[in-house]
Amino acid sequence: MHIQLSEKFTTRKLLRFTMSSILMMVFISIYSVVDGLFVGRYVGSNGLAAVNIVFPLIMTIGSFGFMLGTGGTAEVARAMGEKRDQAANQYFSFLTLVTVLIGVFLSLLAFIFMEPLCYLMGASERIIGDSVTYGRICTLGTVFFMLQGFFQSFFVTAERPKMGFYLSILSGVINIFLDWLLVGVWGIGLPGAAIATVCGFMISGLIPIFYFFIKTPVDFNLQHL
Prior knowledge:
Distance between the termini: 33 Å
Shape: globular
Order of helices and strands: HHHHHHHH
Mean pLDDT: 82
Oligomer: single chain
Largest sheet: none
């Protein structure tokens, strides 16, 4: 049964409505765990250490997407509640563009300064090479990771929290499969694990763009971009 935000929420309805978002956050946290499992087994302890050094930086960049999405949904939802659909679309389009621009800027900075950032986060001379390699490849997908977090909040506002959950599962499955293929089967090593993570980010970051192009019951789209 579809639950609308305009309904009176009981504890049971609230749990049902928020459970998808809670599980989505759990699946997002699995990214580093999956990479760590395959890297630890097929690459070794140095590669595993590099993953653990770099991933907090990736999560930090991604958190800006969650921040913009959480704050942006408040403005969009208020405009929708006031029946200002055009303004809601404009807010949504503008926030999407801002998220992309900030993501590109932060990713570029992280790519350029990855080595000193890795040293700052505790990388030793023994693993600095692996850390920089893994980190720079992952930064190629951090824009999509930011979009993933950004759109998760808007799925809730659009009364489609399960969409975010399903996308998280899909991106996680793709990440696991590519880790197995690139690291376990083809032996690409640490770069393969980073590529698998980027592909997972892309799935969960790009699909919502196409979803919001389609006119939904709350009239979200990107027509003003």
